[in-house]
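My current task is to audit a protein record that another person submitted. What it holds is a sequence and that sequence's fold in token form. Thanks in advance; the entry in question is below.
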Amino acid sequence: MRAHQIMTRSVISVTPDTSIVEAANIMLKRHVSGLTVVDETGKLVGVVSEGDFIRRSEIGTGRKRGRWLRFILGPGKSASDFVHEHGRKVSEVMTDSPVTITEDTALAEIVALMERNNIKRLPVVRGDKVVGIVSRANLLQAVAGLAREVPDPTADDDHIRSRIIDTMEKSDWCPFGLNVIVRNGIVHLSGVITEERARQAAIVAAENVEGVKKVHDHLCWVDTMSGVYLNSPEDDELAKAS
């Protein structure tokens, strides 16, 4: 999937001269956590978000740095903090030169940009004009939308079993002696794992195959050094109940 398939197209923007109070009210009224900032020609010049309103003099949350830290950072940083905490216009608190994407940017790259830059939204530009915005909420909607996809007509038990095995055998955590039994979409996994985290990985791999209704874990854990052998938690519970 790409940005144009999930982005919000009706982007709410303000100008650099918009007041802080007006920008805050727009965000509250429109239920958004960030706004793009455009100049008189419509060119993107910045982004302002909830995070820009956290350190404000009005609510007494300005930064209070010790004398030694102020000395190390220098007067320039103190001056920048003062502007950010007391500024009256969006241009004084916004993030300028924001990270942007295009309509064809792949979702994997979008997520990587968000993580690498620690940001929650990315303006989508065509040239220097904003045509949309992708936020974490859009990614969440994309995940939720997968549940509404048309079921795979080939998702019978044999196909399910083959797909589970193919997926796991490509991974370095694949259980030794992997055995997969599928009946009416219900999967039973058995085999040997030497790393407990591989158990959850195997279950998730099976759950992600189209047509799987439930996964039963019969994977046993073995300590390669001592030879200690432990049944799966599910099998232990069944043994106690019998």
Remarks:
- The beta strands are 13-14, 34-38, 44-49, 95-96, 121-126, 129-135, 176-183, 186-193, 214-222, 229-230.
- The mean pLDDT is 86.
- The longest helix spans residues 157-169.
